[in-house]
Amino acid sequence: MPPQPPPSDVPPLTPRLSPSWRSLLADGQLVTTLVAGLGSPLNLVMPDQLLRNADAFVAVHRKFRLGGSVYFAHKANRSTALVRRIAASGVGVDVASTGELQHALGAGVPGARIMATGPKGDDFLWLSATAGAIVNADSADELDRLGRLVVEHRLPPVRVMVRMAGFSSVGFTVLTRPSRFGVGPAELDEALDVLDRRREQLVLHGLAFHLDTTALNEKALAVEGCLLAMEQCRARGHAPTAVDVGGGFGVAYLADPEQWHTYAHALTASVLGQQAPITWAGYGYGLKAERGAVRGTLGVYPSHRDKAGPGYLEALLESEGPGLRRPLATILLESLVDLHIEPGRALLDQVGVTLAAVREVRAGADGRLCVWLDANRHDVSAEEHGVLVDPLLLRADPLRVSEPVSAYLLGNLCLENDLITRRAVHLPSVPRPGDLPAFANTGGYFMDFAATDALMQPRAATVAVRSAGDGWRWCLDAEYWPEGGDR
Amino acid sequence: MRYESITDAIGGTPLVAIPPEVHGLVGIDLYAKLGMLNPFGSVKDRAAWNMARTRLDDARRDGAAVVELSSGNTAKALAVIAGMHGLPFRSVTNRMKVPEIKDLLLLLGAQIEELPGQTECLDPTDTEEPLTRMYRRLTEEHARFLHTDQYFNPLNRQAHEDATGPEIIADLDGRVPDYFIACVGTAGSSTGVATALRAHGSPQVWGVVADRSDFIPGIRTADELAEVGLFDPEAFDRIDSVTSQEAIDGMLVLNRRCGILAGPTAGAAYFAAVRALREVGPAIEAGDRRTAVFIVCDRVESYMSYVRQRRPEVLQRPARANDLSTLSDAELAGVHSLSVPEAAEWIEREHPVVIDLRGSFAFRALHLAGSVNIVDEVFGELAQGGVPVSPSQSVLLVCPVGEQSLRYAALLRRLGHRDARSLAGGVVAWRDAGRPMVSA
Questions:
Q1: Rounded to a whole number, what is the distance in Å from the CA of A136 to chain B's nearest CA?
Q2: For the residues of A310-338, what is the DSSP string, one character each?
Q3: Could you read off the pLDDT of B335-362 as tens digits, one per residue?
Q4: Are strands B238-242 and B145-147 parallel, antiparallel or unpaired?
Q5: Angle between the A98-106 and A80-87 helix axes, to the nearest 10 degrees?
């Protein structure tokens, strides 16, 4: 007999899910067949949604009359179908390794539409230069190595951007986390020295930054910092034309913002001991109780965000440069500076879903259900990235209903810490073996970013899906092509 | 009254009755305790002084800086107190939400540090979030900081227990009010006064918080209360939430009808007080009277941008005669717009004054040779008074994409200028056509 758990006392965190996914996941036969044939876990990607998201970013550029390009941050998902879909559009790709660059080139992305970022060995630099990609350089040394390779291999001049960091604030201190990447304003001269020496090999295309923060004011300071630094570049005879603000535009994961507030409230009460713990062993996600009050900061991704994706970019462009005191969009436009962006997560909003099969259900020590899934925490790594959202439950027998319950989701690795969620999730009914929890919106970073072969458990297969009027078409990720690759 | 130091003027603030025809409550006398009349402008003066005063000498000897996590009235009071005692003051904050307060703090010589935002790529193994790191920095052994720690410091509450509360009782001729209503921020004034009142009677104590995901200066939302060390749920008989719109409603009543120039925080307390007291009013027997007191935290003047953002109609000024928004389609259609080749040819032939309306930063980088930079805002301001260019001098207006220049050219025409033209497509089109530009 399966256990009869108490009704859920965990507030629900219902994921935002597009009508397309609703329609697809409602096709029980398709979903069951796919998992039966390809195994659990299984990743589904919807390449067409990626382009719709890119269009929304382009619309922001258009609204402010700005030039510049959208570069898809490849690192957020390694699906081939997605990169091939990008290849057949006007969107660029931001690659952060030789492997990603090869992948993009193989998918048919023209080299001129590729931006190479991150730590770069000579192989990465050489292939970028040969392909005609823009090299987004991290240091003066990297620029020099690139210049040398261009000479040695008699390559045409390479467009480069200089990634900057450590912008100083005006008026009052805006604190920013230290970054391991980029050159500080003081080191810019060093980079420009290299560019002066290497005028035959390197063309300064613009300046870049990527700050790991959600705060608009930090980013506004950085945009202005780049603009001011461009003046320095021009004074030395370079003609940069673009600012690259990186990514980090964010995604709203929840359907209802109110649920987020309710959940945060319950979590605080749980940490304070005012109610039964709603997390595994009372885990606090960064909060801790101290003499009846909560200290610490909730270390999770804000699953509800007022401004995310294109809306966040819009807000950034509408904010004022702290020193120049005009809206950033106005300054960029009137200074004839193009704006490049590198969204990853935000471009993948509603692009992917991960399915995992329930193998066993049992009662846990604290009375809540423990649901063992045939997937591990690296296959569905939302929790690892601090995103707290409940899965949907695709039931093998849709007619079987019960009260909502709460459950911990456990992974298939023989390790104590393989918890897919460290909190009890809210499920609409008692899960049974064979049911398929569906994790919504895993496309950006939660799908294959951290997937491992640990314990020789299989990795998820990825399937590309496409709406075809009367239903859904699918094919294996590697077999997807924008034209003629359909099943 | 004569004082040797401004800090001696802290406290002793008036208790003022709200006229019954304004609050409309039956059987209830409602009083406002005007914390806003403290010398630095808010109810926080008392707590700030109480938390800092005994440690100022040591701080001066050690060359320590006063530090507080505040973006509001506590920071303001501490900035003044620190300044008076020759100490630097540093305000650490997540976000300065009220620009006027930020300006005032800078004016008072405070240093403001804004903490970094949340990371976008979260690393759950990083337990070093900025707030924790800051607390650790403040408590390091040889750290030279006078950290007043208002959310956890019992001296915050004590200040109101010892003074604000007893003052209310004294002003009510020794009676304890039946109801006490206060906004909860650090919980210092609300729980401090409540403790004092309960020592002499049994008042109902009501806390006021901001509605979820709304913002009222100096007040927490219900969920944020758990982060306040001084907050004790037992101290409150009920807690009501108020939206920013309701707070502004309350504030306008205090401002316009009561002559109390209070800010939105007091507006929230007043609104919540009247709303809740309306429920108890009918239960009061005829002839019986009850007394209620709420705290007026600070003054309205610092919240103009807050009001402008949330209730712009209150501050709306009529459009000025020569605002761009007054231009008609016909006026815009009447402008002579020149394509890039036409403009180049006209410049060559007629030598018009080329006025570039872009920001000075952009102008400095690249502009049409021989042009003059008058930033759009300045140009618009000049145009309010008349044509800023001799009417017979032909003018070519230039902006980023030709939209603003069209509008300003139309405006010049309306004001009687004879030949003001606009560069179609602006400097973007000029650049795209490969025409030369120079830098300053």
A1: 20
A2: HHHHHHHHHSBPTTT-SBHHHHHHHTT-E
A3: 999 999 999 999 999 999 999 999 999 9
A4: unpaired
A5: 60
Residue keyed to tokens 């001129």: A112
Report chain A's C-alpha Rg in angstroms. 24
Query: Looking up tokens 């002793």, which residue turns up?
Result: B12
Residues in contact with A27: Cβ distance below 8 Å, sequence separation at least 6, in sequence order: A471, A472
Ramachandran angles phi, psi of A447, nearest 5°:
-95, -65
Asked if B231 contacts B205 with a C-beta cutoff of 8 angstroms, the reply is no
- C-alpha to C-alpha distance for B284 and B179, rounded to whole angstroms: 13
Least confident of A223-227, B193-197, B318-322: B318-322
In this structure, the strands spanning B15-17 and A472-476 are unpaired
d(C-alpha B70, C-alpha B95), whole Å: 9
For residue A336, give both structure tokens.
Answer: 């004839």
Contact B168, B33 (CB under 8 A): yes
Q: Assess whether pLDDT exceeds 60 at residue B20.
A: yes
Mean pLDDT of B400-409: 94
Contact (CB, 8 A) for B76 and B101:
yes
Residue A298: name the closest of B136, B124, B97 by CA. Answer: B124
Best residue of A336, A381, A387, A417 to probe chain B, by most B CBs closer than 10 Å? A336
> What confidence tier does A302 reach under pLDDT thresholds 50, 70, 90?
confident
CB atoms < 10 A from the CB of A26, how many?
11
First to last CA, chain A: 42
Mean pLDDT of A427-436: 93
Q: Is the pLDDT of residue A262 over 50?
A: yes
Go through B137-156 and write b for each residue having 16 or more CB atoms within 10 A of its CB, e for each that does not. eeeeeeeebbbbbbbbbebb
Helix and strand numbers (H, E) in chain A are 12, 21
* pLDDT of A36 strictly over 70: yes
Which DSSP state fits A280?
A: G
Are A294 and A287 in contact by the 8 Å Cβ rule? The answer is yes
In this complex, is the C-beta atom of A327 within 8 Å of any C-beta atom belonging to chain B?
no
Counting every residue written for chain B, the total comes to: 440
Give the strand pairing for A352-355 and A42-45. Answer: antiparallel
**Which residues of chain A make contact with B115, given a CB cutoff of 8 A?**
175
Task: Specify the pLDDT at position B82.
Answer: 96
B426: phi > 0 → left, psi -120 to 50 → alpha, else beta; which? left
Structure tokens at B148: 């007043």
A449's CB contacts (< 8 A; 6+ apart) are A75, A76, A77, A78, A381
Structure tokens at A239: 């003609």
Sequential DSSP letters for B208-232: EEEPTT---TT--BGGGGGG-TT--
Dist CA A130 CA A153 (whole Å): 9
Bridging pattern class, strands A288-290 and A134-137 = unpaired
- Three-class secondary structure of residue B199 per DSSP: helix
Put simply, whether A333 touches B (Cβ < 8 Å) is yes
DSSP at B301: G
- Judge contact between A317 and A223, C-beta under 8 A: no
Sheet of A405-410, strands arranged across: A358-363, A369-373, A405-410, A425-427
Distance from CA of B121 to the nearest CA of A (A): 7
Q: Is there a contact between B120 and A174 if contact means CB atoms under 8 Å apart?
A: no
- Cα A364 to Cα A3, A55, A370: the distances in Å are 10, 47, 5
- Minimal Cα–Cα distance from A109 to chain B, Å? 26
Token duo for residue B413: 């025409």
What count of Cα atoms within 13 Å lies in the side-chain half-sphere of residue B261?
Answer: 8
Q: How far is B307 from chain A (nearest CA, A)?
A: 19
Six token digits for residue A139: 């240091």
Q: Test A175 with B359 for CB contact under 8 angstroms.
A: no
Smallest Cβ–Cβ distance between A172 and the set B112, B152, B366 belongs to B112
- The tokens of A236 are what? 């030395």
